[in-house]
Design a protein that fits this description.
With 222 residues, the chain is mostly beta strands. 13% of the residues lie in helices and 33% in strands. The protein has one domain: Pnp Oxidase, Chain A (Roll), CATH 2.30.110. The strands form 4 sheets. It has a 7-stranded antiparallel beta sheet with strand order 3-2-6-9-10-5-4. It has a 3-stranded antiparallel beta sheet with strand order 1-13-14, with no helix packed on it. Strands 7-8 form a two-stranded antiparallel ribbon. Bound molecules: flavin mononucleotide.
């Protein structure tokens, strides 16, 4: 590869694809970024009440310090709780928890104790007061550093204070995502998707580390 800025050699896919000449249709303006992750956020009020909120408007926003951003609608019960303590935990659920994921993203903690209804297990973290969810193989304890009211949603920018992972999803000190069997969400159609296969490894386009594709094949949990 090569050519750099303005160089034609940098074009990897040639003309004549099946979409050539396809008309672009202007759609209504919306924050349609897809797919988005599916995460269970646990938070806690000053009174000790523990709640679970399904979130998809969540992303990595900084590497050093490690930070995430979560957009929570102002009217959500969870928004009040997160503001109260300035802490939350991001729990990455396996596909097996799909029913609990949907439930926690449909009913409100204002009227329902989601921990007792879903039978998910609250376990203490090491840095923040809200509990981690035992059945989720990856848990990120987060401390809110900035709160930005943007409109309908509040953006919580939080530092990752501690990371926990089940031993069976960790290999050589790193998380093997295929063993987690995570979910993604389609905000257009409202569908949950699973991840079935790895299609390539980072760096494959210039020939680096192609063999790692095999090692990282998605393995569903038994
Ligand atoms: C897949 C999925 C993703 C969601 N993502 C978000 C989100 O990122 N931010 C948000 O405020 N609400 C989101 N929701 C909606 C809340 O989870 C839902 O309104 C929940 O019942 C609010 O609970 P609470 O009242 O206990 O806070 C999502 C729901 C689903 C099903």
């Amino acid at each position: 590869m090569g050519g750099g800025r303005g160089g034609s050699a940098g074009v990897l896919s040639g003309p004549g694809g099946e979409n050539e000449g396809m008309e672009k249709i202007p759609l209504e303006r919306d924050a349609f970024l897809a797919p988005v992750p599916v995460v269970l956020l646990t938070c806690m009020g000053q009174d000790g009440f523990r709640n679970i909120l399904t979130v998809s408007w969540v992303n990595v926003v900084c590497g050093t310090p490690p930070m995430v951003g979560v957009a929570v609608r102002q009217s959500r019960f969870s928004c009040v709780l997160i503001r109260e303590t300035g802490e939350f935990v991001l729990n990455i659920p396996p596909a097996a928890l799909l029913r609990a994921v949907d439930f926690c993203g449909t009913v409100s903690g204002q009227t329902t104790d989601k921990f007792s209804e879903t039978h998910l297990t609250a376990v203490p973290g090491s840095k923040v007061r809200p509990p981690m969810i035992k059945e989720c193989p990856i848990n990120l304890e987060c401390v809110v550093r900035h709160t930005l009211p943007l409109g309908s949603h509040v953006l919580f920018l939080a530092e990752v204070a501690a990371v926990h992972a089940d031993a069976d999803v960790v290999e050589d000190g790193t998380i093997v995502l295929g063993r987690v069997a995570p979910l993604t969400f389609d905000p257009f159609g409202g569908d949950y998707w699973n991840l079935k296969e790895v299609v390539a490894h980072h760096g494959f386009s210039d020939g680096s580390m192609p063999d790692r594709v095999e090692k990282r094949q998605i393995r569903q949990r038994a």
